[in-house]
Structure formats: structure tokens, C-alpha cells
Amino acid sequence: MGQRKLGFWQWLAVAIVLPALKVLTKRRWYGLENLPPGGGVIVTPNHMSQFDPLLVAHPIYAAGRWPRFLAKASIWKIPFVGFMLRKTEQIPVERGSVEAVKSLDSLIEAIREGGVVVIYPEGTTTRDPQLWPMRGKTGAARLALVTGAPVVPMATWGAQQVHDVRTKKISLKPRRPVSVSIGEPVDLSRWRGEAPNRAVLERMTEQIQLATRDLLAELRQEPPPPALYEAPARRTPGPREQSA
């Protein structure tokens, strides 16, 4: 189904992760048919736990595709983890720097090679107390506008039972129920050909995040909040604090 031959390190990653996932989780997947079998695609999941990237990767791999995550460059500095991320073709990003431009170039190249690029629009785990998606950053929208690749929303639920960002607790109890829903590509056609200015990118990003929110509401079987969560701005230290 569009899967190119995997290299040694990719197979090793699968051999390490897949058995653990099968022990730790009891999985339900919905909408797998919405993931295109070939060609470049951008997948935009919600992010509620440090465990959920594995829940995102599993159905993509099962569909015959190889996921390439965009993630903070600091993770690449962790021994062994960084090595495996490089070998499995994941993509680091340095925010607010010249390196961020290089990351965008890497993403464009991955899409044009027919890859599945996974971008968390929130950029971090959600700060919403009820774990609903936040307003997103505009990277996925920019990539979609530049490449024309479809944006496929994805929602996961249950990762918080393994790692809860609110309490920092980790549970390795086996067979935790987890659910993943993959939606139809988000209709962004009204912005095709537009210049990637801030207003356009923010409207596209909101459309993407609302699609993910609605998928999550179906998994949770409860109505979603009327608006996306707005994360509180980080407080800038005053002169006294900076000089202390």
C-alpha cells in the first residue's frame, strides 16, 4: 500500500516498539481507509501525552506507510533516542532560527518523495485541563500550502492512561484501551494559491484543529468545547528576576 522497503534501523525500531505496544494497549482504530495509500501526506494529531506518538505511528505503519515525525531538536540530544530518530528518518526542528528553515526544506522534500509527515500543530502537549486540542501553530498549514499535500486529521484517546501530563504519572498496566480515529482530508481548497501570510495560515490551522477536535469528540463520546483552548502566554521575567 505505497510502503517502500524499510531499512535495518526502521525494522529494529518496529521490533522494539511493536511488542511493547501490543502488551500495553488494547487498540481500536477508525478511518484507516482515510489515509492515502501513496503519495505525500500531512497527518495532524492531537497531543495529550508523551506516549501518544506511538499510538499515532502504529496505524500509519499498519496501513503500509512509514511515519516521519517533526519534533523538537532537543530530543535528538538524548543518548540512543537521538541516534534512532536520525536512523529512522525523523525530522528535528529548531524553533525561531535559521535551522527552522532547513526543517521546512526537509519536510517539503519528504512530501515530494511521497512520505507521511506527522506534525503536531499544538507544538507541545495540550494545556487544556480536559485534554482537548489547543489552538495550533501554523507549520502544517504552511507545508500544505507550499506542497499541495492533503492534510489528514487524527485523534487519539487513551494515551493519558499510560502517561498523564497533568499528574506526570506513568502506568505500565497492560491492555489499556486506546482509540485512534483518522479523518478525511481537511478541505483547504478555498486557500489554494493564496500567499502564505499570517491571516491565511491561521484560518487554515483553525480548520485543521477543529477537524481534529471533532474526531476526538467522537472518540470520547461527548460534545466538544465550542472554541479551541487558548494556552496562557508565558510570563516574561521582569528586570529584577533577570538580574537575580
UniProtKB/TrEMBL annotation:
It comes from Pseudosporangium ferrugineum. GO terms for molecular function: 1-acylglycerol-3-phosphate O-acyltransferase activity. Keywords: Acyltransferase, Transferase. GO terms for biological process: phosphatidic acid biosynthetic process. GO terms for cellular component: plasma membrane. Pfam families: Acyltransferase (PF01553). PANTHER family: 1-ACYL-SN-GLYCEROL-3-PHOSPHATE ACYLTRANSFERASE, POSSIBLE ACYLTRANSFERASE. Residues 219-244 are annotated as: Disordered. Residues 41-159 form the Phospholipid/glycerol acyltransferase domain. SMART domains: PlsC. This is 1-acyl-sn-glycerol-3-phosphate acyltransferase. Coiled coil: none annotated. The keyword Transcription does not apply.
